Amino acid sequence: MSVMAFFFIFVFSVALAFLWREGVLEAPWLQEGEIAAYHGNGGRPPNAAKTALFIFLGVALCLFSLLCAAFFMRMGSYDWQSPPLPRILWFNTAALVASSGALHRASAAAKEASPQRMKIALWAGAVASLLFFFGQLWAWRQMIAEGFYASGNPANAFFFLLTGAHALHLLGGLVALFRTIARAALEKPGKSLAATVELCAIYWHFLLAIWLLLLALLVGWADNLGVICRRLLT
Amino acid sequence: MHGMIMVVYMLTAIFLGGFGNYLIPLMIGARDMVFPFVNMLSYWVYLLATLVLAASYFVPGGPTGAGWTLYPPQAILTGTPGHEWGIILMLSSLILFIIGFTMGGLNYVVTVLQARTRGMTLMRMPLTVWGIFTAAVMALLAFPGLFVACVMLLLDRTLGTSFFVPAIVEMGERRDYSGGSPILFQHLFWFFGHPEVYIVALPAFGMVSDLISVHARKNIFGYRMMVWAILAIGVLSMVVWGHHMYVSGMDPLFGFFFAVTTLAIAVPTAMKVYNWVVTLWRADIHFTTPMLFALGFLVTFVNGGITGLYLGNVIVDVPLSATLFVVAHFHMVMGIAPVLVIFGAIYHWFPKITGRMMDERLGKIHFWITFLGAYAIFFPMHYLGLLGVPRRFYDMNDATFVPHSAVGLNIFMTTMALFVGLSQLIFFYNVFKSLRHGASAGGNPWRAASLEWQTPETPPGHGNWGKRLPVVYRWPYGYNIPGAPDDFVPQNAPLQKGEHAT
Predict the structure, then answer these.
(1) What is the pLDDT of residues B422-470, one digit of tens each?
(2) Is the domain of B257 the same as that of B296?
(3) For chain B, how many structural domains are there in total?
(4) Which terminus, N or C, of chain B has the lesser number of Cβ atoms within 10 Å?
(5) Residue A99 is assigned to a structural domain of this protein
């Protein structure tokens, strides 16, 4: 659970910095008359969807940190045997990097108001994400075909749990992405569409970062970190 | 079932789902929550979760008997009632609840961050909104712990993975589990479980601050300190979960860390209590029903908080942890105290919700029965706990270490519990009668300054504020300001000529 300490230090620093900026030290009984309700962003309220996305990313990060913490704690027991990872994971990783990059391009294109390039990039991102998703399914099939069942070993179980949790987040993102693609086809390009595309791009960067983290766990690059975390606890 | 329903499906849902949805937009001057559709979805998912939970009464084997902590391995093994279906439904219901709550929680947080009206800075929000806001943030960060625990336990139960269940012999038969760590479950569960206490308490703190201020006709003492205390409690309560696990064989140093953080929470909490008391000092106290409930909360919370200091110490907790002392502490601080606030808040905001007052005389009868009755039930429990009466037993047989007088006390507590439970019918009678026949309330019967009482219509119409959103010129505690025409100044009253800051 020491992983959670890092998570909290990060989240609480962001939250306190925000509250500081919003004037949590002011004395409201001394302020009279109308004053600006929002301190940042030129006095305007922040964008609702973007705020919601960042808070959701915080929640998702908390979920994955907890899974990491559970992984490290369980890893220390005598029966842990890491399975050989399906090779297709490397291809999947490349696909996710590609889709994240494509959506980044799409967001940039939306800001430059070049709708054609944006649409192509959005589609490229969606296709690459689908490739990643089916690749992950393939990896599951391969694990099962080779007899590494979830009930066989906790390491197998964590493989399915972590990849499954990540894939579900990707599926949710894909729903939003396809809605964005539909909007891009029907609507005139404008600021609101560009904002939506930007949200998709942010979410995909997050998915990529989480996936790289999970991959590090599954491959075993983070084993030493796990040992340190467990030492801190016992 | 009792614990889980009360803590998660009742307290969390009422404070954040019920009061949060009603009060946040009114108090910050918004027309609605930021994402109404997600909000509606959150409600329906919550309803589905409760239905799934209720369905567990009708499956073979009945509902789970694993208590609200659902500790593996016992929760999923033979011998615990409901280990076939009840536990599966319980875990699925919790997973649904958390998904629904995350949608709702995002809404509360974003609404407070984004939809405040002109002039409404964060520091001009009533403490109720601060409490609900902080609690929603905490819940968003704490519920994933329960989510992970539920998913993994469900996999242990259905797929036979060994996340939590060690190698075990069930009814003389060796099961396929091996090497799982029940302690891991406890960590994940209490990572959620302790913040949950404050997720319930912080909105209650906020509402009590507002109730005391309005009915004592005085600004809340130390508003800034109250806000900081709420934030400090929010931060600290995320790192104290280990104090529920002192007896699980953890490292003494680790226990020491958790004891320190646990006792440190007493500092901001005590600050809040002092500020409430100082607010009452030389105030023009009106002993209305909401005020009585708020004062009842104050006493009960201090009472439960002090026994919390006992239990926060490892060395005191170890002998007491399996006795009724813990049950008494927990029900004082998290059962009675928040429920008193819920009642007080309903009596207080009922006029705004329906446009009619509730009956004061019935309300006072209800308060005295509930308040004194709750003490009659839970106060003797402390003594039973100190005698060593263990919790979780319904029959003690001939336990010789407990004196016989404990039986009499138990009978007394049970009788009182039935009586207090039945007398809650007075409250429901009052609600339904006042709905139709209550005295007309007008827009602002308590002469309160905060924004929700200044709506153009009562009950608030669609969109809350008519054509124009209100503009906020001052903080929500403008009571008894020298030189003001009335003894309260609404938040949206423009500055008068020559007015100075108070």
Answers:
(1) 999 999 999 999 999 999 988 899 999 999 999 999 899 999 998 999 9
(2) no
(3) 2
(4) C
(5) yes
Q: What confidence tier does B101 reach under pLDDT thresholds 50, 70, 90?
A: very high
Across the interface, do A70 and B148 touch by the CB < 8 Å criterion? Answer: yes
Number of domains in chain A: 1
B474 contacts A24? CB cut-off 8 A = no
Residue A41 lies in a domain: no
Range of B325's domain?
286-454
DSSP letters, A157-191, are HHHHHHHHHHHHHHHHHHHHHHHHHHHHHHSPP-H
- Would you say how long chain A is, in residues? 234
For B132-189, give the DSSP string. HHHHHHHHHHHHHHHHHHHHHHHHHHHT---SS--S-EETTEE-S--S--HHHHHHHH
Domain span at residue A91 reads: 84-222
The pLDDT value given to residue A128:
97
In chain B, residues with a C-beta closer than 8 Å to the C-beta of A35 are 119, 121
What pLDDT digit, counting tens, does each position of B378-421 carry? Answer: 999 999 999 888 888 877 777 777 888 888 899 999 999 999 99
Q: What's the average model confidence in pLDDT over A175-181?
A: 95
Q: Say yes or no: B291 and B257 in one domain.
A: no
- Confirm if B236 and B195 have CB atoms less than 8 A apart: no
User: Same domain for B225 and B311?
Assistant: no
Tokens 């002993």 sit at which residue?
B287
pLDDT band, very low/low/confident/very high, at A190 (cuts 50, 70, 90):
confident
How far apart, in whole angstroms, are the C-alpha atoms of residue B237 and residue B268? 11
CATH number at residue B150: 1.20.210.10
**Closest approach of chain B CAs to the CA of A186, in angstroms?**
22
Torsion on CA atoms B109, B153, A163, A123, rounded to nearest 10? -50
Binding-face residues of A in 16-35 toward B, CB within 8 A:
19, 22-35
Band of residue A133 on the pLDDT scale cut at 50, 70, 90? very high
Cβ separation A234–B251 shorter than 8 A: yes
- Asked if residue B497 belongs to a domain, the reply is no
Residue B502 has pLDDT above 60, yes or no: no
Which residues of chain A from 173 to 192 reach within 8 Å of chain B, CB to CB?
A: none
Q: Are B176 and A151 in contact (CB < 8 Å)?
A: yes
Q: Are residues B365 and B443 in the same domain?
A: yes
Q: What is the ipTM of this complex?
A: 0.94
Nearest chain A CA: its distance from B230 CA (Å):
12
**Is residue B472 domain-resident?**
no
The CATH number of residue A177's host domain is 1.20.120.80
Residue A52 belongs to a domain: no
Q: List Cβ neighbours of A190 (8 Å cut-off, separation of 6 or more).
A: none
